[in-house]
Amino acid sequence: MSASHIPNLNTLRRGGGRGRFRSRGGGQPGDAGHGSHGAKDRVVQGTDNDASVSRLSAVNLGYLDDVFAPALTPPGMEVRRLPIINRGTYVRTTTIDHLVTRFLSAHPSYPKKQIISLGAGTDTRIFRLLSSPTYDASNLVYHEIDFSVNTSAKIKLIRAAPLIQRVLSSSSGDVEISPTNDALHSPSYHLHPLDLRSLPTSPVLPGLDPTLPTLLLSECCLVYLTPGEASSVVRHFTETIFPATTPVGLVLYEPIRPDDAFGRTMVANLATRGIQLQTLQEYASLEAQRRRLRELGLDRGQAAADVDFIWDRWVNEREKERVAGLEMLDEMEEWRLLARHYCVAWGWRDTPGGVFEGWREMEGQEE
């Protein structure tokens, strides 16, 4: 399979006591769908379907264990992805899970921590964490921010999923859903309908605690904004919301290397769907991603690695054998090409020995 026949590569994007669901008043400013971005926003909003379909494909084939994936995939969208896409979904998901786990399990003097997922869509990570037997959900505050059309769709799927409702009720207590059905709030989980571009001028997000060690997640989200807009979103947290004494980290999953033959094909394939990756040229390499993190104030440490490197170096041999046995993957050259054009980058600010210190051993990845 030549590079020109690689499928659309955006498919790698992102997969207490007994409570009750009830409505609440109030809405959120900055709704998507209201404003001048129009058709481009609708294209970006639709990319979440790619993510949920890819996640479900990987789950159904045994790459990932995620009981919530079927409930958060829109009905009628079950599709078996190509083996290289399934493997890429596996590496992305398990890598970010590993970084999240290291963050949550670090430094017992900070038992309670906070995660903010940007452009989360139908991501299932919050429900996997809340149902994990190894983590105390009362020590987690999890926020998701996305266009209102996406948060509304997610709430609709949650309402139709008794399994998810039980997880939320048992771990988070009362769950309040807005009358417009696009916002959800509970002690552990907040779903905010908000256009990220309006975040710097919006009121403080309900439930956000500026004193908690916080991890920001962006899985192919900030890449859709201009470089200036993307930086403004991150700086809103690192410079405005969280004081300098609050430990903050950021994990990015994004495409890279747009200027070789494969990268040009990748960009062209996405352009046929009207998708523009606006930060791609600005942060086209691993070093550019590390520089970006430093410039955003995450100056205690930065690292980046492409998916090919992570598969080779982070996945142990036994797990590689298990994954390789799930499907026949003959086209190793195409897999390496694809895997070298996506990366995970992570950076943090913290005091020595703080909650992010465990990330230091994962620094120094190859260009």
UniProtKB/TrEMBL annotation:
> Key word Methyltransferase present in the record?
yes
InterPro entries for the chain: LCMT1 (IPR016651), Ppm1/Ppm2/Tcmp (IPR007213), SAM-dependent_MTases_sf (IPR029063)
Q: Where is the composition biased (Polar residues)?
A: 1-11
Task: Provide the catalytic activity annotation.
Answer: [phosphatase 2A protein]-C-terminal L-leucine + S-adenosyl-L-methionine = [phosphatase 2A protein]-C-terminal L-leucine methyl ester + S-adenosyl-L-homocysteine
Give the region (Disordered) as residue ranges.
1-43
Q: Which GO terms describe its molecular function?
A: protein C-terminal leucine carboxyl O-methyltransferase activity
For whether the record's keyword set contains NAD, the answer is no
Q: Which residues bind S-adenosyl-L-methionine?
A: 92, 119, 195-196, 219
Q: What is its EC number?
A: 2.1.1.233
A single BP term in Gene Ontology: methylation
User: What ranges does the record list as Gly residues composition bias?
Assistant: 24-36
User: Which UniProt keywords are given for this protein, alphabetically ordered?
Assistant: Methyltransferase, S-adenosyl-L-methionine, Transferase
Q: Which family does it belong to?
A: Belongs to the methyltransferase superfamily. LCMT family.
Q: What does this protein do?
A: Methylates the carboxyl group of the C-terminal leucine residue of protein phosphatase 2A catalytic subunits to form alpha-leucine ester residues.
Q: What is the name listed in the Swiss-Prot or TrEMBL entry for this protein?
A: Leucine carboxyl methyltransferase 1
> Could you tell me which species this protein originates from?
Aspergillus kawachii (White koji mold)
Please name the gene that encodes this protein. PPM1
